[in-house]
Structures are given as structure tokens and as C-alpha cells.
Design brief:
Layout: H1 41-53, H2 60-67, H3 77-107
């Protein structure tokens, strides 16, 4: 699943060492919309886009209706930012809890 909770696909690039006081993971940027639900994975996604773009394709009208206002070039970043922030919060809470345990056990 991708951060938005769909069974879409995501590619992570530009991984680098972070800063100690920054909460990770973080959403930095994205490009293109993920495939819609039940499109048949990546091959079905591209087949649907091709059929929608080709007025002579036998399934053109069906895909125009099914994809309606879907635009693969538009990405809704807000759900991604929220989902990744939740992951970061859980990860950082666990890290903080472990640090406190180490501190307490080191004082005993």
C-alpha cells in the first residue's frame, strides 16, 4: 500500500541522511497521481489511459466514463502528507519511549 492507503505504487528517490531534530519520514515532493482503484495494476492503468485517449479504441467511451475527471498529472498531496506524518509520529513516539527507558534504566 502506498501512504494514501491505496494499492497504488510509489517510488522513493533522493534518500539521504537526516538531521537529528527533524521528524522522519517526511513528505518532500511528489509527481503524478496514483492509479485509480481496480484498474488492473500498472498494465491496466496504462491500457485505460491509452483507451481513454484514443477515440477509435473499442472501449474508449467506457474508459472516458469510468475515469471521469481523473487526471494522472494532478497529485493530491494532502493525504500523502497526513499519512506520512502519522507514520513519523508513531516512529518518533516509539523512539522517544525507548530513549526514556534507556535513561531510566541508566539512572538505577
Amino acid at each position: 500500500m502506498n501512504p494514501a492507503g491505496n494499492r497504488g505504487y510509489a517510488r522513493v528517490t533522493g534518500v539521504r541522511a537526516g538531521e537529528l531534530q527533524t521528524s522522519y519520514p517526511r513528505y518532500v515532493a511528489g509527481e503524478r497521481n496514483g492509479p485509480p482503484e481496480d484498474c488492473g495494476g500498472i498494465p491496466g492503468f496504462y491500457a485505460a489511459l491509452a483507451a481513454r485517449a484514443d477515440p477509435d479504441h473499442p472501449d474508449h467511451d467506457e474508459f472516458v466514463e469510468w475515469l471521469d475527471e481523473y487526471d494522472p498529472e494532478v497529485i493530491d498531496e494532502l493525504p500523502l502528507k497526513i499519512a506520512i506524518r502519522r507514520i513519523a509520529n508513531r516512529r518518533n513516539a516509539a523512539r522517544s519511549h525507548l530513549a526514556k527507558k534507556r535513561l531510566i534504566s541508566g539512572q538505577r
